[in-house]
Structure formats: structure tokens, C-alpha cells
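Hi everyone, sorry if this is the wrong subforum. Our group has a chain we'd like a structural model of before ordering constructs, and none of us has done structure prediction before. Sequence below.
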Amino acid sequence: MKPTMQDVADLAQVSRATVSRVLADSANVSQDKRAIVLAAVQKLGYKPHKKFRNQHRLFICISPTQKTDPFSHDIIKGIKTGIHTFRAKHDIEFLGEEQASADQRLPASILDPLGQADGLVILGNLPLTEQQLLLHDRKIPAVIIHGVGSSEVFSYIGIDERRAMLEIVSELAQLGHKRIGYIHGPEDCLDHQERLRAFKLGLLSSRLPVDSSLVVFSSDWDQESGYKAASALLTTAAPSAIITANDQLALGVYRAAEELGWKIPEELSVVGFGDLACAQHAQPPLSTISVPLESIGKWAVALVCANIADSDFSPVRLTVPASYRRRNSVAGVNYTP
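Answer:
Right subforum, don't worry. Here is the predicted structure as C-alpha cells:
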């Protein structure tokens, strides 16, 4: 049987009211009594109720497929900024390793009935259905950022990738590009499937064929993976434009194009995704899809803290717009400077 506040009071030989004041960090308790009560809490392994903590403890749970994606780094930066703003404690955990599954397993520590989690921010895929129910039953609020699947009991922040991708493909088609390649990232990553679907829809909307030879899956999300994927794509499929699932992959395309003698944008147009700092400093500056990544992280923390403060808080679903930023890496077919 787990220890109670009365057990703490009995061991410390004080009243329940004194234990309550110590746990609430009240100034109306002497230092000696405070030390005795805290020693009793530690000895018994007593877990105070959430209302006695002066800081929310949030778990940031990251899907394995998001670990190495630079796109996620700015979101995590925003989450940490939000945590600082709300003066919350936090731990970073990684979801289970079933990368090919749309469902990911939460760490056991979060689902422990005696655990200290007040709320979760999940970056990536939703946890398993039975774990969602456990979180709901134990009234642990969660916010899902850009994950596969949906839930009626958790708040969700998604990105409207489709509109921006359709705009890019449409513009490239209007500029005369008929062979548009796409570097997706790891094939088993379900988090970014919407980008691939939007790319294919854009081709069909522009009356261009969906050619599987122009779609390449990279081994990871970094520049080296983009370089290898682009080298294969440029050698075998000869596209006139390449869209990538993030900006780091696009920089790998730059390197491959330079080594193979393709000039950007004269012979090859390149578009990334994320509008990271590296996109602006590339030569030529990289056209990309811009998303307010840090703001998404801060909004997620604000939502989960609002949910902690008000148990009747209704889940919110936000769709954040993404916008196309054209820079000097895109030009028409047969462009001459």
C-alpha cells in the first residue's frame, strides 16, 4: 500500500496541516519542522499530489524518427523556451523503437501510477491506443505535435504542408519543369508522409506524371544522406528540379550537384522544407517552405499547462500554416543569368 499524508504526519510527529504546508512550500513552517517532514517524505517514498508542487513537471516525448531530423530541433527549442516561460520542470524521453509503426510506446516511468508526470508534449507519432486511454484515465494531459493519427482526448498541433507543397509544384510546372524529383527522408518515417502525398497530388494537379524513379528515400535527414540520394537521382533520373523533405537534405543536393557539374539554378532548381538558418546562408540562398517551428513548441507547452491548470479544458486542434519562400535556388527551365 502506498504511503499517505497521514503516514508522513505520524512519522514526523506533526499534524496533517503541517505536512500540507511543507509540501506547498509555505513560509509559515519552521526550518526544523520542514526538515523533519521532508525526511519523513523521503523515508516513506511518499509521492505528493500534483497540487502541492510549485512547478509543473512535463515530459517531452520524441518519436525515434524525429531524433535526427533538424526540422525537429527548432520545435524542441521552442518547447524549452515555453517551459522556461511557465517555470516548469521537464524531462526528455524517447518513445519506443518501433519506427515502422504509426503507434509508439511511452516510457514506463510516465505511465507509472506513482509517477510525477503532470503533462506530456509528444513530438511525432501518437502512443499506442491503450496507453492513450491510460493517460486519459489518469488525467495526464498531452499535446501531440505533427504526429500520425489523431485523438479526441489530446490537443494536437499540425502543419498545413499540403497548400505550400501544391504551390511549389505548381510554380515549378509553370516555369517549365516536367521532371521534378523528390527526396523524402527515411522510408519508414510515417511522420512526414503528408509531404509525399502532397507532392504527388501537386504533380497530378499540374498534369504531370507521377514517376517513381523521381522519388528517392534517403537513409537519414542530414546533408550526407541528401548528398547520396541526390547523387543517385541526378545520375539515373536527370530531373530539372528537386524538392526535399527538409533543408539539410537540400544542402546535400547542392553538394551532389556541384560534384556532378549541375549549376543551381541554371540547370537544377532546388527547394527545401523548414526554412532553417542554413537555408538563408546557402549559396545560392535556398528556396524553402517556412514554418514557425519555435512558436509551435511554445504553443504546445502553453496548451498543456492550460490543461493542467483547468481539468475541464477542452482539447484544441491547431493547424499552422506553412508558406513558400522563393529565393535564388529556383529558376525556369533553360534559364540563363
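For your construct planning: Residues 57-159+293-322 form a domain with the Rossmann fold fold (CATH 3.40.50.2300). The first strand starts at residue 57 and ends at 62.
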